[in-house]
Amino acid sequence: MSTTAETAASHPVALEVRGLSSSFGKLRVLDGIDFSVRQEEIFVIMGESGAGKTTLLRHVLGLAAPDTGEIDLLGSPLHPATRKSLFALRKKMGVAFQHGALINSMSVLDNIELPLRQNTKLDRSTIRIMSRMKLEMMNLGGFEDYMPAQLSGGMLKRAGLARAVVMDPRILFFDEPSAGLDPVTAAELDGLILQLRDALKMTIIVVTHALESAVKIADRIMIIGNGGIRAIGTLEEIRKSPDTYIQSLLERRTLDRDVDGDAYLERLTANLDE
Amino acid sequence: MSDAAVAFAPNWLVVRIATLGRLGLFFALVSLHVARPWRQWRVTLAQIHFIGTRSLTVIAVAGGFVGMVVALQFYDTLVRFGSVSLLGAAVGLSLIRELAPVLTALIVIGRAGSAMCAEIGIMRSDNQIDALECMAIDPYGYLIAPRFIATLISVPLLTAIFNVVGIAGGWFIGGVIFGISEGSYFAGIADSVLPRDVLMDVVKSCSFSLIIVWICTGKGYLLHLDHRPAFGAEGVSRTTTDAVVASSITVLFADFIISALML
Questions:
Q1: CA geometry: angle at A239 spanning A71 and A243, to 5°?
Q2: What pLDDT score does A3 carry?
Q3: Whether B86 contacts B180, CB under 8 Å
Q4: In the predicted structure, residue A144 carries a pLDDT above the cut 70
Q5: DSSP class of B44
Q6: Which of residues 114-143 of B touch A (CB under 8 A)?
Q7: Which residues are within 8 A (CB) of B196 and not within 5 positions of it... i.e. 6 or more apart?
């Protein structure tokens, strides 16, 4: 555990999830998830595709209501919560989406300025300076007037990150920062995440597939799979896990999965008459 | 509807009722924001420019040609009965009561309604609406309400322009081509068009604008709740087509109902 992480362990809880369960129709995606994240901690959520990482993130962001469970963010209930209190909480958090999710019809600078224009009464020049500072921080100086369609994948992510931190949020969520990026750009983004925590004292929750990135930035890692938490702790603690799934994930081995022969045959021969 | 009723009801009926319910809730939530102080005036002005100003040319061209065609048709009929002096009244009443509000609505659906649906659908598909929510910006207030206000302002004005250009087109055919006197043409309109005809025009154009913006923005906004998997390019194009068809048919249905009630 890094020194910063040890310090973070003494901080109050920023996010607490208790007994969270979620389903899509009859498919149980998350079942009884419990975890907490402390302030100024970098907490990485990992798991294979379809494990429920994005679903968990959507619940924690208040974008979807879980079937059961409670979520507290910065000491206030996020679920259940009224729309008004949800919006009040969201002013304290920033979200960087996987593909940036910039508003297509606006320039990069207008996108970064948007939360400040809508949520504060700052004058136009202050908003402009604050937005340009964040763009410079993300190495996007000079791209203010570009439209999102003119940016590369890495630039879109950095612009999305600039917008997410422009209000200096207390907690930052970052969905798949490294996905689809070359190693150099991915490493740059990892550096930015560490810089944000150290410089702005943010709590950062990252959802990722990328082990290298998780190893580099995480104070603690949570690995989810089969609807539950497979492991949670520091990298050293995770490495000691006897779970073969965790070991496969860490060592990038393929997993020998048990195959139900009958179910396999049934899937192959389903709906042949259609 | 209870679970048992849902189990026995045909799937298409459940889907239709669910869609209507969602659109109803969507309308209620937007109404709350439209009624609130007008915070998003910049976005609203941009939408008025997009829906109104940028539709002016097509509305003017369509209005002109429709006015000319109507005048041609009526002239051909009226001349058989020796009543060409009624051309102004016939053109004016047809346009004001019926053609201008309906055709303006259909043109706005094709030009702006489809674009609104596709834009909001893509925003939903690309997580841009989720991003707005996460920035503590209410999408109903920021995205949808300005479009509602802009459409409610633009469509009645476009209808008025359609009327004026259509009447001018009718005068071009009647007065310039067939030599009917200008006074007879315009006096015919002034004598026959009553305030209740203008009221019908206004009621129709306001109702149609509400239908257009409700269905087109609602379909795009609720794209992710479609009963068929609706994300991506195919989903957006299908939803846009659905929105254009549904709003066009609803406009024609509403036209019949309003005409039946007001005539």
A1: 75
A2: 47
A3: no
A4: yes
A5: H
A6: 119, 122-123, 126-128, 130-138, 142
A7: B262
The closest CB to that of B138, out of A87, A91, A101, belongs to A87
ipTM value of the model? 0.85
Q: Which chain B residues touch A168 with a CB distance below 8 Å?
A: none
Instruction: Measure the CA–CA gap between B146 and B125, rounded to whole angstroms.
Output: 21
Pairing between strand A203-207 and A42-46?
parallel
Peptide bond into A80 cis (omega under 30): yes
Q: How far apart are CA B144 and CA B120, in angstroms?
A: 9
The structure tokens listed for B72 are: 């041609």
Cβ burial, residue B169 (10 Å; 0-12/13-18/19+)? buried
CA geometry: angle B97, B99, B104, nearest 5 deg: 115
Q: Give B76-85 pLDDT, tens digit per residue.
A: 999 999 999 9
Minimum mean pLDDT range among A7-16, A36-45, B190-199: A7-16
CB-CB: which of A61, A63, A118 is closest to B137? A118
pTM attached to this predicted model: 0.85
* Tens digit of each residue's pLDDT (9 = 90 or more) over A152-163: 988 999 999 999
C-alpha B140/C-alpha B31 separation (Å) is 9
Tell me the two tokens of residue B257. Answer: 């109902």
Give the tens place of pLDDT for each residue, B4-59: 666 778 888 888 888 889 999 999 989 888 876 567 888 899 999 999 999 999 99
Report percent pLDDT > 90 for chain A. 50
For residue B192, what are its two tokens? 């026959």
Residue A7's CB is within 10 A of a number of other CB atoms, namely 14
Give the count of beta carbons closer than 10 Å to the beta carbon of residue A143: 17
| pLDDT value for A8 | 59
What confidence score (pLDDT) does residue A255 get? Answer: 58
DSSP string, A164-206: HHTT--SEEEEE-SSTT--HHHHHHHHHHHHHHHHHH--EEEE
Q: Which residues contact B148 (CB under 8 A, 6 or more apart)?
A: B30, B34, B210, B213, B214, B217
